[in-house]
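Lab manual, section 2.4: Encoding a predicted structure.

Procedure: take the sequence of the chain (289 residues), apply the prediction step described in section 2.3, and record the output as structure tokens. A sample record is shown.
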Amino acid sequence: MTPRDAAEPNDSSRWSDLDRPPLNAAALRRGLVREDRLWSEVTLVPSTGSTNSDLVALANAGKAAEGAVLVAEEQTAGRGRLDRQWTAPARSGLFFSVLLRPAEVPVARWGWVPLLTGVAVATGLSRAAGVDTALKWPNDLLLTVGGEERKAGGILAERAGSDAVVVGVGINVTLREDELPVPGAGSLALAGAVSTDRDPLLRAVLRSLEEWYGRWRSAGGDPAASGLQETYAAGCATLGRKVRAELPGDRSITGEAVAIDGDGRLVLATEEGVQEPVGAGDIVHLRPA
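Recorded output:
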């Protein structure tokens, strides 16, 4: 991989916020990269448009192996689902992408990758930050701030060629109330995390992702046999709620979210007595669980 490592130490203007020290690239490599483990390379850059776009380009050019991790201190054109912008101050969060090549898993099951990542992120943050986390289907991380459920992170998976998936993760760590990009957003700091040190948080999330990816891959991508389907459902704040699914083509469905099916789709029970699976779309929570 080609991006250079994070900013020069004499760049004092960029590191003037002592509450937001830079990540330690060397320490991250020492803690994560092993010959017999998933993570093959950790590259840290001071700023980029989108880690997902960069890593997809590197994968397509044959310049990134499975397990490559690209981390940015700042993203200027970060993307969420439906090409929504994801912005945050430099070093206020974790912004990274990973390259996975699940050759043992049928492509039909690759739709579980973003849900798997959600489980891994929630698990890792619960352990390292000491905060209760939940998942909004399909790929939003929710935290409780002042008794209110808020989005503090998101996941975006993209294909890279025919044999790889790039998964991008954005997590708000130290954002203050006046820095939040939209009303209803949150951060680990606002949720009362016991730690906002990004180095151990990133290591915890990547180790959790390695664990869940290995379990899912060993099961041939079977979400039930790997325990992924059950674990995702247990941590999904969308289940048990009345929701509105806003679908492509300006169509919407309202109903109770009752299950996550074997394809990772959200199953809605409508007032007409029909159970309808939703594979893509925006979900609006209409009432608390």
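Check your result against the sample. The chain has a mean pLDDT of 91.
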